[in-house]
Design a protein that fits this description.
InterPro entries: Cell_Envelope_Assoc, DUF218, Rossmann-like_a/b/a_fold. This is YdcF family protein. By secondary structure, this protein is α/β, with parallel strands linked by helices. It is built from 7 helices and 5 strands. It has a single domain, classed as Rossmann fold. It has a 5-stranded parallel β-sheet with strand order 3-2-1-4-5, sandwiched between helices. α6 links the parallel β4 and β5. α3 runs antiparallel to α4 and α6 runs parallel beside α7. The longest helix is centred in the N-terminal third of the chain and has 21 residues.
Length: 176
């Protein structure tokens, strides 16, 4: 009996991992939100957020989890010509958060302060399941548009992220 239950648990885990791996989200279609929240830490995230902002699909952007030493001038150098004006007028650098969970908390405080009720969440496709889960927990009333940056994650990255996702769901379920 224990062997069968163990085999069932392993099978469910493996099927869950397979579903997680093949259901990575895509970039969002064009559409307006009050804000964009870009989570730092992955290639193409900031560029995607800036492109959406430049296209007028949101009023303002928060770069959540930015290193405190990073300035708008640093970002302008990284993003290239034409980004400076947009960075000065419409981008906030949030340096209060250190992980996905605190990114959601930082974004909630920022959105509440500004009176926003909708956001476009920009992060890597492999990170989006957990990020969206955290944001939905912290901002249950907000309309959240998922805007994933396409990547080619390794099996190791997918495996690690799936386990983090499961652990976080279990922690909330157990009220830890």
């Amino acid at each position: 009996m224990i062997l069968r239950l163990s085999a069932l648990a392993v099978l469910l885990y493996a099927l869950g991992f397979a579903f997680f791996s093949v259901s990575l989200p895509d970039p969002a279609p064009r559409g307006k939100t009050d804000a964009i929240v870009v989570l730092t830490g992955g290639k193409g995230r900031l560029e995607r957020g800036m492109a959406v902002l430049a296209d007028g699909q949101a009023r303002r952007m928060l770069v959540a989890g930015a290193d405190p030493s990073v300035t708008r001038a640093d970002l302008a150098r990284r993003l290239g010509k034409g980004s400076g004006k947009l960075l000065r007028c419409c981008v906030d650098l949030g340096s209060e958060s250190v992980d996905t969970r605190s990114n959601a908390e930082e974004a909630r405080r920022w959105m509440t302060k500004r009176g926003y009720s909708s956001l476009r969440l920009v992060t890597s496709d492999w990170h989006m399941h957990r990020a969206a889960y955290e944001f939905r927990q912290d901002l249950p009333e907000a309309r959240i548009v998922i805007d994933a940056v396409q990547t080619r994650p390794s099996l190791f990255i997918l495996f690690a992220e799936y386990n983090k996702y499961l652990l976080r769901r279990a922690a909330l379920w157990l009220d830890l």
